[in-house]
């Protein structure tokens, strides 16, 4: 079958199409209904069917591949390296599930997971899936204020965490950040379950804090059966940034997600049972959920969980893992490749990479020099794929598992089956059908399996945020600009909103502004994303200080800049720290007081500031130019 036929069928006959794909997973009770689109935009898949993500990721494989590697844990930070077979993983997950049950966790309860890249994080996620608890993994690089807002929103019964993570050989203590996050939140968890890696001493709160190893040991031979869940029950929430300071809990189901992942592993990632998948993401991001933990395991593959940098001990570390574990599919981000590109290219030739079939890259635009460099170095197809936390799996790419299609430099590819992707005019909402026209990338419902169900606890916000932004149409907005060529390949041109993408990490400029504003010397602040050769974008802040003497001389400016960065580090985490803080006496605004963020961004990138007819005081932009030495 050609991909075009495959795709058309998914859009024209979604029930028949997805009913077939549903056969890729195990059902305890087959779904009596495939698609329920009676309350758009809330699409329900496989309603009435019963299944379990953990069963499909682990238990299902015990019959045929119990002794095959399932989870390969490698830390170049601590030197730990351990392979868990499916049988061993089954044991670990049951112990973790028993520990959660002992702490009172039941179906539908939330468990917040704030952990470094250690095997226990995957055990905890799978244990939640097993008992029907809703996990909410918070990226370990986030700090106390980010954590507090997520605790507040998810209201977890239990939080699973660890003493510390490690980055580049430097220990990053988690427990003090967690304690502060809990202190700042009005919701308090009943219990905290802590993995003690022995990296840094932990203060424990009596009655609340429990030890992972001790509690699991109490349930050493526990048998915890999978809870058969409705396909439309909630599997997890994952927080993502938008244009407000308040993160959105992207909520996903059980059955649709399992089917979407199984299908994508086959059709997009060309995963075969017995192969090894190596995704270099983090469990705190959606890629980590879909393609470190659930996707590869559902496909019966071993998955590598890697804690460490791509260049430590040297830039050959990832390739040495490909050789050692015969990695068949690898998934990373353009930033990581750009980091490797700055190192000695000989590292690519040092290892036997013949097992590798393709390298998938996602999370940010893939520039042509980076794509060419890695493609020539590896000698395998480089497959860009475009998606979002909200979609759960790729929206645009090429499905080589269905039909081989060439990738095009600069384009992530064509719409994936199930995604009715369109381009619309930003202000009229009119559909743009001619090639080469720039518009907003939108998705026409029903959304496919695996797509978010709603914003956790806030259906109205889901509709308002995503489905009511295009005039005259109820379509899902990706908030990305795009262009389509004559052959249907899309090109993504950046966000239409105030979300920035730093090294593949999605950050809201408002969140960073709120954090900077909490510094007592700051009167006003604007944060914009500025193009960066390595990270894609970096955050840059323009601050109006309360008192001009705070920036009287270079030393004072440097000190305040450092202090502001420290505030962001402590509240949001180093990922959100602006690369530079510049000081000005006023910010460019419209006469009605609206911040001219786009003009600031343009100037910061050395571009033309665009239409300035509404600007209150043009000297504000001149100050920014002066600050950037463009005077
Ligand atoms: P996240 O939800 O963190 O995965 O971020 C999603 C956003 O990252 C998208 O809306 C895009 O702006 C950007 N993005 C993800 N993948 C790609 C890609 N392959 N090419 C260009 N931009 C991408």
UniProtKB/TrEMBL annotation:
Pfam families: ACAS_N, AMP-binding, AMP-binding_C. The keyword NAD does not apply. It comes from the Bacteria. Residues 59-447 form the AMP-dependent synthetase/ligase domain. GO terms for biological process: propionate catabolic process, 2-methylcitrate cycle. Keywords: ATP-binding, Ligase, Nucleotide-binding. InterPro entries: ACAS_N, AMP-bd_C, AMP-bd_C_sf, AMP-dep_synth/lig_dom, ANL_N_sf, Propion_PrpE. Residues 511-594 form the AMP-binding enzyme C-terminal domain. One of its GO terms (molecular function) is ATP binding. The keyword Magnesium does not apply. Residues 3-57 form the Acetyl-coenzyme A synthetase N-terminal domain. Belongs to the ATP-dependent AMP-binding enzyme family. This is Propionate--CoA ligase. It comes from Caenimonas aquaedulcis. The lineage of its organism: Bacteria, Pseudomonadati, Pseudomonadota, Betaproteobacteria, Burkholderiales.
């Amino acid at each position: 079958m050609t991909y075009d036929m495959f795709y058309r069928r998914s859009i024209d006959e979604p029930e028949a199409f997805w009913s077939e794909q549903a056969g890729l997973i195990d059902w305890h009770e087959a779904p009596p209904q495939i698609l329920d689109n009676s309350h758009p935009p809330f699409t329900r898949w496989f309603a009435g069917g019963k299944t379990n993500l953990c069963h499909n990721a682990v238990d299902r494989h015990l019959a045929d591949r119990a002794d095959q590697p399932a989870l390969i844990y490698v830390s170049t930070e601590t030197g730990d390296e351990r392979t868990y077979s499916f049988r061993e993983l089954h044991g670990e997950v049951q112990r973790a599930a028993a520990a959660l049950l002992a702490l009172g966790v039941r179906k539908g309860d939330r468990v917040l997971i704030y952990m470094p890249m250690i095997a226990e994080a995957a055990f905890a996620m799978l244990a939640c899936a097993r008992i029907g608890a809703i996990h909410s993994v918070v990226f370990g690089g986030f700090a106390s204020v980010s954590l507090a807002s997520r605790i507040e929103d998810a209201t977890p019964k239990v939080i699973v965490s660890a003493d510390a993570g490690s980055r580049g050989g430097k220990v990053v203590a988690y427990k003090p950040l967690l304690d502060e996050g809990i202190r700042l939140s009005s919701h308090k968890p009943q219990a905290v379950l802590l993995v003690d890696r022995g990296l840094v001493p932990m203060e424990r709160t009596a009655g609340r804090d429990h030890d992972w190893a001790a509690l699991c040991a109490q349930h050493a031979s526990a048998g915890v059966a999978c809870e058969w869940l409705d396909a439309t029950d909630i599997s997890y929430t994952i927080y993502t940034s938008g244009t407000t300071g308040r993160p959105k809990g992207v909520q996903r189901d059980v059955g649709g997600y399992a089917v979407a992942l199984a299908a994508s592993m086959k059709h997009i990632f060309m995963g075969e049972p017995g192969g090894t998948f190596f995704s270099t993401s983090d469990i705190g991001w959606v890629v980590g959920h879909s393609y470190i933990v659930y996707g590869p395991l559902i496909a019966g593959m071993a998955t590598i969980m890697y804690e460490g940098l791509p260049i430590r001990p040297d830039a050959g570390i990832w390739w040495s893992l490909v050789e050692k574990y015969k990695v068949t599919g690898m998934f990373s981000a353009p930033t990581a490749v750009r980091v490797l590109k700055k190192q000695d290219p000989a590292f690519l030739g040092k290892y036997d990479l013949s097992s590798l079939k393709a390298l998938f890259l996602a999370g940010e635009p893939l520039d042509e020099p980076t794509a060419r460099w890695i493609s020539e170095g590896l000698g395998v197809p480089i497959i860009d794929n475009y998606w979002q936390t909200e979609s759960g799996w790729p929206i645009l790419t090429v499905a080589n598992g269905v039909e081989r299609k060439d990738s095009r430099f600069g384009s992530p590819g064509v719409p994936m089956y199930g995604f009715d992707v369109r381009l619309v005019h930003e202000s009229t909402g009119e559909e743009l059908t001619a090639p080469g026209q720039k518009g907003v990338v939108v998705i026409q419902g029903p959304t496919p399996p695996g797509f978010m169900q709603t914003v956790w606890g806030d259906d109205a916000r889901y509709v308002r945020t995503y489905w009511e932004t295009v005039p005259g149409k109820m379509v899902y907005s990706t908030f990305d600009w795009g262009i389509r060529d004559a052959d249907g390949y899309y090109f993504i041109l950046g966000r239409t909103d105030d979300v920035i993408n730093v090294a593949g990490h999605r950050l809201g400029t408002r969140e960073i502004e709120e954090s900077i504003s909490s510094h007592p010397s700051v009167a006003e602040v604007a944060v914009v994303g500025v193009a960066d050769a390595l990270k894609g974008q970096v955050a840059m802040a323009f601050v109006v200080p309360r008192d001009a003497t705070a920036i009287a001389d270079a030393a004072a400016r440097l000190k305040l800049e450092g202090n502001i960065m420290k505030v962001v580090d402590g509240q949001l985490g180093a990922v959100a720290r602006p690369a530079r803080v510049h000081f000005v006496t006023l910010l460019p605004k419209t006469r009605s007081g609206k911040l001219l963020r786009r003009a600031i961004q343009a100037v910061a990138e050395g571009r033309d500031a665009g239409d300035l007819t509404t600007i209150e005081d043009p000297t504000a932009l001149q100050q920014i130019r002066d600050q950037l030495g463009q005077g």
